[in-house]
Amino acid sequence: MIAGLAAPLIIMLLYSFWRQDGPNVDTTLTTFNYEYALTKYRPIFIRSLWISGLVTLATVLLAYPIAYYVAFHVKRYKFIWLILLTIPFWTSYLLRVFAWRIILAREGVVNGTLQGVGLIDEPINWLLFSDFAIVLTLAHAWAAFAILPIYVSLEKVDRTLLEAAADLGDGAVRSFWRVTFPLSLPGVISAITLVFVPTIGDYVTPDLVGGPRGGMIAKMVYNNFKASDWPLAAATAILSMVFVAFVAFFLIQAIRLSVRSVK
Question: Quick one: which of 22, 43, 166, 258 could link to 185 by a disulfide (CB 3.0–4.6 Å)?
């Protein structure tokens, strides 16, 4: 842990307080890189937050009905159902991203099908190299990581509580919002954490399906390293880590409060 995690982080933190001076690194301590990153990359930080928020919302909205169906309506072979849900994720992440490029391309599957049935005359240009493509691809890529914690949370719901709610006059919708959903909230928040934290730092998907203007904060880190400005890249990465840590902290606190409220 010290050699593989702590030491590199300490080195990167130290680099973030230095400054690139041509081919050399000025080791005089300064906060210039942080000030520059907060000023220059503020729109990118906000964009990364916005995209990751949309991805998280779309992923959870997709995952919850699937997890609910497996938990409450599948009576036998639930383990096989869970395996079937994860089979698409056995392939390479990069391969799945390229698959979405083929599906959403101007001459791809979606446009070809819509033109073939006569719904459109010209290909839809915004399907690929747009925020829509980024959100869709990332939501698909992280769906399994949202389904599993929500399923585990739903599986633990005491069914006798639902029976008691029905005996007291609650219908299916009312008992869901008053009993099932509050009890599954820890799983939902866990899914939000598992999706939001990695997607805000994703580099591959925004670069491949988002186009030249689809970059997020990870691309800025990469570009700075590529330009040999290691101190600025380190400061940008540290700021991103701090931001994600704050979000994760508040989500963990929300999980604890939800568990206490359920108890």
Answer: 258
CA distance 210 to 53: 16
Choose between 81 and 247: higher pLDDT: 81
pLDDT in tens, 46-90: 899 889 989 999 999 999 999 999 999 888 888 888 888 888 778
Rounded to an integer, what distance in angstroms lies between the CA atom of residue 35 and that of residue 48?
19
Q: Provide the whole-model pTM.
A: 0.85
Give percent helix, percent strand, percent coil of the chain, each to the nearest 5: 75, 0, 20
Would you say 194 and 59 are in contact if contact means Cβ atoms under 8 Å apart? Answer: no
Cα 114–Cα 117–Cα 119 angle in degrees, nearest 5: 55
**DSSP class of 20:** E
**Which residue type, as a one-letter code, is found at position 202?**
D
Question: Which residues partner with 19 through β-bridges?
Answer: 26
What contacts 222, CB < 8 A, 6 or more positions away?
Answer: 203, 233
Domains and CATH numbers, the chain: 2-78+143-262 (1.10.3720.10)
* Structure token pair of residue 214: 């689809």
Distant-in-sequence, close-in-space partners of 180: CB < 8 Å, separation ≥ 6: 68, 154, 157, 162
Q: Give the C-alpha separation, 165 to 81, whole Å.
A: 29
